[in-house]
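Researcher: Predict the fold of Sodium:proton antiporter.
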Amino acid sequence: MDIKSMSSSLLFRVIVAIILGIICSLFFPVWLAEIFTTFNGLFSNFLGFFIPVLIFSLIAPAIAGLGRGAGKWLGIVAAIAYASTIFSGLIAYGASQALYPWLLKDHQSVAEIDLDAGALQPYFNIEMPPPFEVMTALLLAFCLGLGMAVVKSDTLFKVTRELERVVMKTITAFVIPLLPLFIFGIFLGMGMNGGLLEIMSAFGKVLILAVVGTLLFLTIQFIIAGAVSKKNPWKLFKNMLPAYFTALGTSSSAATIPVTYQQTLKNDVDVNVAGFVVPLCATIHLAGSMMKIGLFAFAVVFIYDMEVNAGLAIGFLLMLGITMIAAPGVPGGAIMAATGMLSSMLGFNTEQVALMIAAYIAIDSFGTAANVTGDGAIAVIVNKFAKGQLHTTSPDEIEEDDRVAFDITPSDVEHHK
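Model: Structure tokens for Sodium:proton antiporter follow.
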């Protein structure tokens, strides 16, 4: 990766924003810092307005699409991807319950820090009420998506696809470019209000746990794939390592598809199965992303001593799993789609959501690598049952179909999960 491409990546800009926010908090005058606080207030209000629209516009056509294309195998692969994603989230929840009382016990004092005391105040604020609540968006998208799939409503399906493209353009051209400035303002405010070092220390431990967690989950995936296919799990996993390391370098599921496809074939997966499963799962299988979001979310819950019982946590994961399947394929797209669930179901405030976004993007490539490597395990499982039954177009053509709604070009290597 050259200097120009590195400096233009979202990860680089977020890291710079965090560092500058911390440094500037040491000497910025209050009047200057409150300019950024004003921007953050407006941007946060816009996100609150936009996220329900985002969720509806992504999930409705995604569910409707299950009734089109490759018939029952599309639904089966989507179900496997959803089950894998939920399983990853449940492991993250179990790990948080078992490890956080020990790992983060010295950081619960964060909850006692009153960040509102002496907090920076915006110069003005503009309320932006959302058109509907997040849960309403989910239910409406689910009902409308199922309805379109059942009655084959081509006109309404095209309308939701167009809405999806409009929303995606808003994300890529407006929301994502402004995220680093938003994160800068958050860390600037936390640094000037106190408690920043304690929070960063706690999240550093969770970052390491998330990387280890994705590797352990891959191990489980390939053990299951090996048991189903009656093949050596280690050999299956070893064959997929080139895809893993390619994704680490590109942080892009789309750019890794050719490598994932070739390595999947080395696991004796039928060419039609590989050509169908790999491009599809590159869009809908985000188990690695779920692991990261789950671990970070439950870390915030533990550190801030929030009341989230097991029932609420599992409900959050089930809803988040649907959101992950429809998450946009852009840098930070998964965590942006998840912010609605974090706020509406877990009660996260603006600072906590910003921490989630920054931590997620910091190890974005590890989540993407886990996603695409796990795609190989799913392909092995599907191959056991679908070999000889799938007759699809070429991987490039399927990839093009998957790219339509996301406006992704084959050469675009910056579009992450």
